[in-house]
Amino acid sequence: MEMCTLEKRGNLFILTLTGEDDHRLNPTRIDAIRSALNRIRADSASHSGCVLITTAHGKFFSNGYDLAWAGSSPDKIRLMSSTLRALVADLISFPMPTVAAVTGHSCAAGFILALSHDYIVMRKDRGFLYMSEMDIGLKIPAWFMAIMSCKIGDATVRREVVLQAKKLTAEQAVKGKIVNAAYDSAEETLKGAVELGEKLAKRGWNGEIYSENRKQLYREILDKLGADEITDDLEKVAIATSKI
Length: 244
What we know:
three-stranded parallel beta sheet, alpha/beta
């Protein structure tokens, strides 16, 4: 089963999570995304003046970790965490601007995936951003917190996301300065992402310099990606899995 596609459209690379499922993040899907990113990296001539857009089919951008796949297996749980952390590191070091076109629900680790992009655009008519850990009884790992601290500047909004498990609509997320723009449909959202991407691509920035400056900007996140203290808490993960 194909997990994602990669299309080159002018100076834009459009990576799409395929299928009508909820795009749960397990190692197979994450590896497919990383493989697509590596294909872009392999062509050094495409690094400058280009932009990556990540989007998805169906009603979910991503519904988070594939806890049902991991079950109570310590090895699977640790692998799921380590592969997502590697993907986040890839995005932070990626040699071009990145845009998440969120055309459906983006929950928990899926929310983190969206936040790992430089810009987010989102559809108004369906979908919300949701950090579900409070509702399913899971502690949020320090590296998730580092991403949210860097990407959600308003402390009140961050408290609502983390401690109230608030489901943010696109318009609320724009107001909270998490999302850059909101659109009326999935089609308009992708169109908006393409317009933003073309605007950024016209700047012609050097990709390697862009990568280095982003890594400095998000040094706090990179410093936390080496470990995940939550993956050893198997009992709580098992409880959360039972609630799915």
